[in-house]
Amino acid sequence: MKASPRTTIPYWLAEPYTPPPVASDAGPAGPADVVVVGGGVTGCSCALTLARGGMRVRLVEARQVAGGASGRNGGFALRGGAPAYDEARETLGAAQAVALWRLTERALDAMAELAGAALRRVGSVRLAVDEPELQELEREQRALREDGFEAEWLEVLPAPLERLFAGGFVHPGDGALEPALWVRRLAGHAREAGAELVEGQRLDRSAIDRLDAGAVVLAVDGMTDDLLPELGHLVTAMRGQVLATEPLGDRLFDRPHYARGGYDYWQQLSNGRLVLGGRRDTSLDTERTSVEETTGLIQDQLDGFAAELFGRPLKVSHRWAGIWGETVDRLPLAGRVPGTERLWVAGGYSGHGNVLGFACGDLVARAILGEPPPELALFDPSRAPI
Ligand SMILES: Cc1cc2nc3c(=O)[nH]c(=O)nc-3n(C[C@H](O)[C@H](O)[C@H](O)COP(=O)(O)OP(=O)(O)OC[C@H]3O[C@@H](n4cnc5c(N)ncnc54)[C@H](O)[C@@H]3O)c2cc1C
């Protein structure tokens, strides 16, 4: 199938979805203590913690739960943040880097309890394409082990990795997600805890400012600067593109793999399909956009890379794009929006939000419940850009 530019449905969202019975037809039922805007992993996690904490919560989603990046991503559930561990240790200091990595390890454990079969804790593989990247990986793996984190060097690369890569290591606690299934389950947990879900309702900033609620959480990652232009100097929209193949007879990859600093990533699902994304660095300027469309240029690159991995052209069944929020320092923004009383934000995960989004949604909810967790200081939205 030749790649062509268009908007397409992700493999993860291709299954028919019956939205749960919600109050959207009848209109919102009375005031809420907290309105959460955005039905991705962040908003659903936030709504779950708030509802369990006894708040009346309404989650408002413009499309469907998981219709944004949370149902359009590569399905990697990785600990840590977007920067490599040794870089984070240098810029944040050892204590803060350890706190961030431990936060995400705890989040992964909590996700595993909620996700059922939508999360497989199979670990992930970080690979180097050349000698300079190999040295980067050696520095990161050493730093992780020095600070007590598991990270296993791959002494021998199995086929076909040995043909294409210089080396790599395993993060044993990481996982492979079916992201839309996972976030719908999370939304189900939030609903069971008492949260109200309203799908198909887009709120603009003036509607948000008029909401009758004690607090409003903006959990819209790639659309953060749209709703909060005052944070536009810290976070902007970025596009990622992905493809999925038809089921493949040969199973080459038993866990998610990524290389070239995350510009290439892929996982093979239990049904044999390859889900592969990245190559954004082919055209960084055009991928700095909030337009959720595939392009022929990047999709052709993905086709080529998939063929390199399997040694033959592969039949592609799904192509899609998604938008995430990229911050200047590649750390999320989570906390009260500077200069406001009741607006909160959680987003800007810089392409690393499956676990961080779950964690940040929960952190913000706990702050609203009156117990601000110390980790929130790491993501202070009033920090100065570096
Ligand atoms: C192609 C791609 C690959 C990625 N791969 C990975 C990966 O493998 N691992 C990883 O950890 N991260 C990955 N990410 C990043 C990760 O998907 C996101 O950071 C994460 O899903 C963000 O979740 P969220 O809930 O904050 O935002 P989203 O999932 O984007 O949810 C925000 C929701 O808000 C809704 N919304 C927006 N504006 C409004 C409005 N005005 N009113 C009402 N609703 C609104 C949207 O419809 C959307 O559903 C990837 C992202 C992309 C795009």
Indicate the topology.
Blueprint: E1 32-37, H1 41-52, E2 57-61, E3 76-77, H2 85-92, H3 94-115, E4 119-120, E5 124-128, H4 131-146, E6 152-153, H5 161-164, E7 167-171, E8 175-177, H6 179-192, E9 196-199, H7 205-209, E10 213-218, H8 224-227, E11 235-245, E12 257-259, E13 264-268, E14 274-278, H9 284-287, H10 296-310, E15 316-327, E16 333-336, E17 343-347, H11 353-368
Parallel strand pairs: 1-2, 1-10, 2-9, 5-12, 10-17
Antiparallel strand pairs: 3-8, 4-8, 5-7, 6-7, 11-14, 11-15, 12-13, 13-14, 16-17
Helix pairs in contact: 1-6, 1-11, 2-3, 2-4, 3-11
Bound molecules: flavin-adenine dinucleotide (FAD).
Flavin-adenine dinucleotide (FAD) binds at residues 37-43, 60-63, 67-70, 72-76, 78, 202-203, 219-223, 227, 240, 242, 277, 322-324, 347, 349, 351-355, 357.
Describe what you observe in this structure.
The protein is an alpha/beta fold and 386 residues long. Helices cover 31% and strands 22% of the residues. The protein is built from 11 helices and 17 strands. The strands form 3 sheets. Strands 6-7-5-12-13-14-11-15 form an 8-stranded mixed β-sheet. Strands 9-2-1-10-17-16 form a 6-stranded mixed β-sheet, covered by helices on one side. Strands 3-8-4 form a 3-stranded antiparallel β-sheet. Helix 2 (85-92) crosses helix 3 and helix 3 (94-115) crosses helix 11 (353-368). Residues 24-28 have low confidence and may be disordered. Bound molecules: flavin-adenine dinucleotide.
